[in-house]
Amino acid sequence: MMKRISLAISAIVASVVAAAPATASASIVELGAQTKTPIAAPSCPKGVSPASCYIILTRTTAVQSITDSVVNPTTVKNAGWIVAFTVGLSQLSTVGSTEVKYLHELDTAYGGTPQLALTVLKPGPDNEYTVQAQSGTYHLIPFLGEVLQEPLSLPPSFTALTALPVAPGDVIGLTVPTWAPVLSYDLNATQFAYRQSRRANCKNAAASQTAQLTIGASQRYLCSYTGTRVEYSATEVVNTPYPKKYVH
Hints:
The protein is mainly beta and 248 residues long. It is built from 2 helices and 16 strands. The strands form 3 sheets. Strands 2, 3, 5, 6, 7, 10, 12, 13 and 14 form a 9-stranded antiparallel beta sheet that branches. Strands 1, 4, 8, 9 and 16 form a 5-stranded antiparallel beta sheet that branches. Strands 11-15 form a two-stranded antiparallel sheet.
């Protein structure tokens, strides 16, 4: 499965850069992963019971604000296209019957099976972010316990595109309309942190839907969590600039 996915991503990257001149080459950047700690499938810290384990992200859009002391690691530096993403997913339990029990409880509590989407956000003042573009939704149950690398898919209204356009300054967020086991926590509080797209009651799970699901909508991200990493990154193919000798 992972070989198939890697080949599919390679094909997408090739299609994006194919239009460039033969002597030019586009660079590929992994936004959110240019740090010393690789993306990993989360697990509960040693000695922590499942009831006290906070690896589940629920009904929100998340933006990683610090990773390995790198501030805003998913910020786009050069214009290009997001063509794939990588996400670490917890297995929940190695015991099949226990995992089924957890899945049922989480599906019931948060309105459905685990899902996520990739979201392009434009930052504004006072930690406000506006949705610029968003991928299709991915269902995660088949991949729990893995670091999943997946080519981008888009909503039906974007069938003419094969990737999400990004501009310098954009930030890549992870949108979870239901729930997803993507949080690694109990990390160094000065080296890891992320924000959620909500403004109040930050110590508790969102009581209602707070995920950013509408293009053009804005929200303030005032719930910040230190010592935690959302295990995701995004693959960008950077636009190849015109050669300096180009005169037309």
